[in-house]
C-alpha cells in the first residue's frame, strides 16, 4: 500500500501545498459549512446532513448524482472535510465513483484525527449494521488541524481521548506516560500537546495498518476495547463510541489480569487514566446484556472471537477464544 501522508497545521495553508492542481470537489457537512464557509466555498462542494443516519447508500447515491451533474471525472480529486462520518462517506464515494478517484481528508474531530481518517476503511451502514458495506482504500493525505478541535462540543472532544488512550495502550508507552503526567484541560488548551497526542496516536495506527492493511493479523490490535465497546453501543444509547470504548478497555484490562497476562497494577493505571480523563467506567447495562450483544453481532460468522488483551502498557496481543471462554472472563 502507498502510505497516507500525514500533515499537522493550519488546514487552508496545507491544502494550498498538497492538493493536486486539477479539479477538487469538497464533501462536507452542514456544520462544517457553517463553521468554515470560506474554506468550503473555495472549492466546488457537496454538502451532506449530520448524524449517523446519513452514513447510508442513499447519501452515496446523491453524491454520485451531484458529481455527475458537475461533470466530475477520473481526474477529479475528492476532499472530505469533517469528522468520521464525512471521511467514511468521502472515502467510499472516491473508491467507487468511476472505479476510483484520488482523495484526501481534512479531519476535524479528535476521534476522526486519531482513528477514522486513517487506515483506509471507508464504509456506510446498511440494514442496521454499521460499516457493513465499504472498501479499503488509503487516502493520499490526512490534514489534522488541531485548532479545528476548539469548535467541538466538550463531550465529543473527551470521547476522542478514549482512542488516544487505546493507541497508547496498544503501542506507545511514552504517549501513555504523557497522558498520565498531564492534566486533560492543559492538553486541550495547548496546540503543541494536542498535536503531540494526535500525531503519536496516528503513528501507532499507521504503523500497524502498513503491516496489515486488510486486518488479517496485527491490525486486530486496534480493536482493543471495541468488542465490548460496540456491544455497549448496541445495547444503550447513553454512551457515545469513545465512552463505550473506554468502558470496554477497562473491562478487558481487568479480564486480562484474570487471565494472568496483565499485571493488576497496569489495569489500575489504565482505569485511573480513563477516570482522570473524565470517563465513567460503569457499564450502562448489565454484563449479561452486553455479552448477548457480543454474540449477536451478525458481522461474525464464527463460534470464536478475536480478543485483544493488553499484556503491558504499550503492548497487546490477540487471542482467539470461543464465546464461552470469553464470557467466563466476566463472571
Ligand atoms: N478509516 C478507518 C480505518 O481504516 O480504521
Global mean pLDDT: 96
Residue windows where pLDDT falls under 50 for at least 5 positions: none
- Overall CATH class of the largest domain: Mainly Alpha
What is the rounded Rg?
Answer: 20 Å
User: Helix-strand pattern, N to C?
Assistant: EHEHHEHEHEHEEEHHHHHHHHEEH
Counting helices, strands and paired strands, the structural category is alpha/beta
Please tell me the total number of domains: 2
Q: Major beta sheet, specifics?
A: 6 strands, parallel
Note the topology:
Blueprint: E1 5-8, H1 11-18, E2 24-29, H2 30-35, H3 37-41, E3 44-48, H4 57-70, E4 77-82, H5 84-96, E5 103-107, H6 110-116, E6 121-126, E7 129-136, E8 141-144, H7 154-171, H8 173-181, H9 184-189, H10 191-211, H11 226-235, H12 241-258, H13 264-276, H14 287-295, E9 304-312, E10 315-322, H15 323-328
Parallel strand pairs: 1-8, 2-3, 2-4, 4-5, 5-8
Antiparallel strand pairs: 6-7, 9-10
Helix pairs in contact: 5-6, 6-7, 6-10, 7-8, 7-10, 7-12, 11-12, 11-14, 12-13
The structure holds glycine (GLY).
